[in-house]
């Protein structure tokens, strides 16, 4: 597998011969109304880092091509399959019908600590992250198979959306590698 640095990623577009060599994992990222373009770009970098199958960008938000997403993504938005969807609820229902496990990353009375996530992970899996202010919509949370949250020990109530996603994605990878 070839590797590209940030400089090369910013100016290299994938060609079928290289794009098809990426062995993708059955992990999908679902962005529920994530509005910060730098978060979206960072989520593309995360998806590339783990060779995610796809990103779904849902709701009224920016999507590639976008110069701010490109800057934060360091060009990885060219290498990660993605799709724009208008409605997260409809998408999650569709993914569930295809047998996909839905993990929502959100602070909720129904949340379970991320540390026990390993026993609850099945593949394929979609990891849903939400809007930076309002979080994941209640309707999407109601559809989730598991809601997980990260402990917050300081004065801040929440971690950045891409940072939270990274912790959960790597926890999922850890649990599937143990099988």
Automatic annotation (TrEMBL):
<dbReference type="GO" id="GO:0003723">
    <property type="term" value="F:RNA binding"/>
</dbReference>
<dbReference type="GO" id="GO:0005829">
    <property type="term" value="C:cytosol"/>
</dbReference>
<dbReference type="Pfam" id="PF00588">
    <property type="entry name" value="SpoU_methylase"/>
</dbReference>
<feature type="domain" description="tRNA/rRNA methyltransferase SpoU type">
    <location>
        <begin position="27"/>
        <end position="170"/>
    </location>
</feature>
<protein>
    <submittedName>
        <fullName>tRNA/rRNA methyltransferase</fullName>
    </submittedName>
</protein>
<dbReference type="GO" id="GO:0032259">
    <property type="term" value="P:methylation"/>
</dbReference>
<dbReference type="GO" id="GO:0008173">
    <property type="term" value="F:RNA methyltransferase activity"/>
</dbReference>
<dbReference type="InterPro" id="IPR004441">
    <property type="entry name" value="rRNA_MeTrfase_TrmH"/>
</dbReference>
<dbReference type="InterPro" id="IPR001537">
    <property type="entry name" value="SpoU_MeTrfase"/>
</dbReference>
<keyword id="KW-0489">Methyltransferase</keyword>
<keyword id="KW-0808">Transferase</keyword>
<dbReference type="GO" id="GO:0006396">
    <property type="term" value="P:RNA processing"/>
</dbReference>
<dbReference type="InterPro" id="IPR029026">
    <property type="entry name" value="tRNA_m1G_MTases_N"/>
</dbReference>
<dbReference type="InterPro" id="IPR029028">
    <property type="entry name" value="Alpha/beta_knot_MTases"/>
</dbReference>
């Amino acid at each position: 597998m070839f590797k590209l640095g940030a400089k090369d990623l910013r100016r290299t577009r994938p060609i079928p011969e290289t794009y098809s060599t990426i062995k993708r994992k059955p992990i999908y990222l679902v962005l529920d109304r994530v509005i910060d373009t730098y978060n979206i770009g960072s989520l593309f970098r995360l998806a590339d880092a783990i060779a995610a199958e796809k990103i779904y960008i849902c709701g009224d938000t920016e999507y590639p091509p976008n110069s701010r997403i490109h800057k934060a993504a360091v060009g990885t938005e060219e290498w990660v399959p993605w799709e724009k969807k208008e409605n997260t609820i409809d998408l999650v229902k569709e993914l569930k019908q295809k047998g996909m496990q839905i993990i929502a990353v959100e602070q909720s009375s129904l949340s379970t600590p991320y540390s026990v996530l390993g026993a609850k992970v099945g593949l394929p899996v979609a990891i849903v992250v939400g809007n930076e202010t309002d979080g994941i919509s209640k309707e999407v949370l109601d559809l989730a198979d598991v809601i997980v949250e990260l402990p917050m020990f300081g004065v801040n109530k929440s971690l950045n959306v891409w940072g939270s996603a990274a912790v959960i994605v790597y926890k999922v990878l850890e649990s599937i590698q143990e099988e």
